[in-house]
């Protein structure tokens, strides 16, 4: 491609609203442009990167017998109402009405659509298993779009769905997908880890996220320093023994604690430690207010609270909710003398506390000498806190460390989460109607572009790996007004194209400094500069990954290029 005929609007200045390097460089190098918050156009270079990512994904999907389809982005509300997600998905679902006042959603995901398609077409176990996938735009009304392509309101996604007659069949496809995803991210050159994760609004049980390790990642990965164990911090299990004090339980005592609202303040005021305080939180679990307890130095994990309570939606109760329930402010709540019927859940560490401190459900007042199961009742104990660095690894091997990650893929075992409420059934080998057993597998295609861009860069611009670089070679005649330089550049350009290489020719009438700066910014793997020694047949070649420069004679360019790309 000739640069004069393409659309590559590079920028000299970094856009003020671009927070991370990948976003800055994708804008500056002319790969993308923002249309509005969280919505981007892919320009020619960006589209070529997208295309290469899609090609790798398609190859790995087809290798495990996944078949590509294309489903509508506009989805009727009735399908989402069958599963209940029309009401539970939340504000991220973009909803609209047509001229006849019928309700629709722009596809945030496609479980309902694919399930409705299969239930009308596949009636026998003989046609299972079946895995279908698509690459399509998704829409989610993010409250705070940020980091360019990493968190947008419209984005490109590969979503696959598998249908099975038996759990064993699902297990095999899940394992195949796990391997295929690992192959995809390795081919892209990404530094990633597969981690245990929460299913969130998708549903189902067993699932893994694929995280690209990055300091700008919005997710925290908890991993063992001595084993393969890794999990999203929301799902990292805490497996610790909390020995109970042999101290004798004393009589509960009410004490005044004016203006002491935080655990740290209360502990200091009462001359105790945060470990001896019982932190009390009120959550809204679906439509019910529940109480959750943890040790004062621990943080409650709301995902684990959702699981132990059996709720579909979990959120912190508002100050107004708390006052209506307990007649006090948040800083003074506690588990003693709660209203009848309020469910109480506690982290395992709470059970070991003897003569602890809690709020008294009265502003500016706390209880001393509170002991669980003597002074208040707990419905269930469980692992309800966030893991911390230094905790034992749940697999018993090593200790937990933290790292930041960018989620680029997520795979789920859905089971019958969608097939049962949607009455999507097949006849098994005994003629009995059974709900499909399903799996779901997603990759953020446009997010991958940002993740690769974040990993492959230096102070001058991108250092794209060959697998996803928009072009392989940048041919740069320094002065196109010089007949020898221009003609030599054209000759090399045509020769390399004829050999099947992807070549970008900078035929612009720009100064050398502008051309070199743009070439570094765009970051193609190999740059061939046709300069003052072109008359001698000598060319300067730059390897963008290492910034190493060498000289080649023009007669050896084709052989050297084949050797470089191992073609």
UniProtKB/TrEMBL annotation:
Which major enzyme category is it?
Answer: ligase
Q: Where in the cell is it found?
A: Cytoplasm
An example Gene Ontology cellular component term from the record?
cytosol
Q: Recorded E.C. number(s)?
A: 6.1.1.15
Extract the CDD domains matched here. ProRS-INS, ProRS_anticodon_short, ProRS_core_prok
The reaction(s) annotated as catalysed by this protein in its Swiss-Prot or TrEMBL entry are:
tRNA(Pro) + L-proline + ATP = L-prolyl-tRNA(Pro) + AMP + diphosphate
Gene Ontology BP term (one): prolyl-tRNA aminoacylation
Keyword Ligase present in the record's keywords: the answer is: yes
**Where is it mostly found?**
cytoplasm
Could you describe the subunit structure of this protein?
Homodimer.
Known function: Catalyzes the attachment of proline to tRNA(Pro) in a two-step reaction: proline is first activated by ATP to form Pro-AMP and then transferred to the acceptor end of tRNA(Pro). As ProRS can inadvertently accommodate and process non-cognate amino acids such as alanine and cysteine, to avoid such errors it has two additional distinct editing activities against alanine. One activity is designated as 'pretransfer' editing and involves the tRNA(Pro)-independent hydrolysis of activated Ala-AMP.
Question: What's the protein name?
Answer: Proline--tRNA ligase
Q: What are the leading ranks of the lineage?
A: Bacteria, Bacillati, Bacillota, Bacilli, Bacillales
């Amino acid at each position: 491609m000739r640069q004069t005929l393409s659309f590559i609007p590079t920028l000299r200045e970094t856009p003020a609203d671009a927070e991370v390097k990948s976003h800055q460089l994708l804008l500056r190098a002319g790969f993308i442009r923002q249309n509005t918050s969280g919505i981007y156009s892919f320009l020619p270079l960006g589209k070529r990167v997208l295309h290469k990512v899609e090609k790798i994904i398609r190859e790995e999907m087809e290798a495990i017998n996944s078949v590509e389809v294309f489903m509508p982005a506009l989805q009727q509300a009735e399908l989402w109402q069958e599963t209940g997600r029309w009401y539970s998905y939340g504000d991220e679902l973009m909803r609209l009405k047509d001229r006849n006042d019928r309700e629709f959603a722009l596809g945030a995901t496609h479980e309902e659509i694919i399930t409705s398609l299969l239930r009308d077409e596949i009636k026998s176990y003989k046609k299972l298993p079946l895995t279908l996938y698509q690459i399509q735009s998704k829409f989610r009304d993010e409250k705070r779009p940020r980091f360019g392509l990493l968190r947008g309101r419209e984005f490109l996604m590969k979503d696959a769905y598998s249908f099975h007659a038996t759990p064993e069949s699902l297990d095999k496809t899940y394992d195949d997908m796990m391997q295929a995803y690992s192959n995809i991210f390795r081919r892209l050159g990404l530094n990633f880890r597969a981690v245990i994760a929460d299913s969130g609004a998708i549903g189902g049980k067993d699932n893994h996220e694929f995280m690209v390790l990055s300091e700008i990642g919005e997710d925290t990965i908890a991993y063992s320093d001595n084993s393969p164990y890794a999990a999203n911090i929301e799902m990292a299990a805490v497996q610790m023994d909390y020995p109970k004090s042999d101290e004798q339980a004393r009589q509960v005592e009410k004490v005044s604690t004016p203006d002491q609202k935080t655990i740290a303040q209360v502990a200091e005021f009462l001359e105790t430690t945060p470990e001896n305080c019982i932190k009390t939180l009120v959550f809204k679990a679906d439509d019910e207010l529940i109480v959750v307890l943890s040790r004062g130095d621990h943080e409650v994990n709301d995902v684990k609270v959702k699981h132990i309570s059996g709720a579909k939606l979990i959120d912190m109760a508002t100050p107004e909710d708390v006052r209506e329930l307990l007649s006090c402010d948040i800083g003074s709540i506690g588990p003693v003398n709660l209203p009848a019927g309020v469910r109480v859940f506690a982290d395992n560490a709470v059970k070991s506390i003897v003569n602890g401190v809690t709020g008294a459900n009265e502003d500016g007042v706390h209880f001393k000498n509170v002991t669980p199961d003597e002074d208040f009742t707990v419905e269930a104990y469980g692992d309800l806190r966030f893991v911390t660095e230094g905790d034992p690894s749940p697999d018993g091997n090593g200790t937990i460390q933290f790292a930041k990650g960018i989620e680029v893929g997520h795979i789920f075992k859905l089971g019958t989460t969608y097939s049962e409420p949607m009455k999507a059934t097949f006849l098994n080998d005994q003629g009995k109607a059974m709900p499909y057993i399903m799996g779901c597998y997603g990759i953020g295609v446009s997010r991958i572009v940002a993740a690769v861009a974040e990993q492959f860069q230096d102070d001058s611009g991108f250092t794209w790996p060959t697998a996803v670089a928009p072009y392989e070679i940048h041919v740069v005649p320094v002065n196109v007004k010089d007949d020898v330089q221009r003609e030599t550049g054209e000759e090399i350009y045509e020769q390399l194209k004829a050999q099947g290489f992807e070549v970008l020719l900078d035929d612009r009438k720009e100064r050398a400094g502008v051309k070199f700066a743009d070439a570094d910014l765009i970051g193609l793997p190999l740059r061939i500069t046709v300069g003052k020694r072109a008359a001698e047949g000598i060319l300067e070649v730059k390897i963008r990954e290492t910034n190493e420069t060498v000289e080649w004679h023009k007669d050896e360019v084709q052989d050297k290029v084949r050797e470089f790309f191992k073609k």
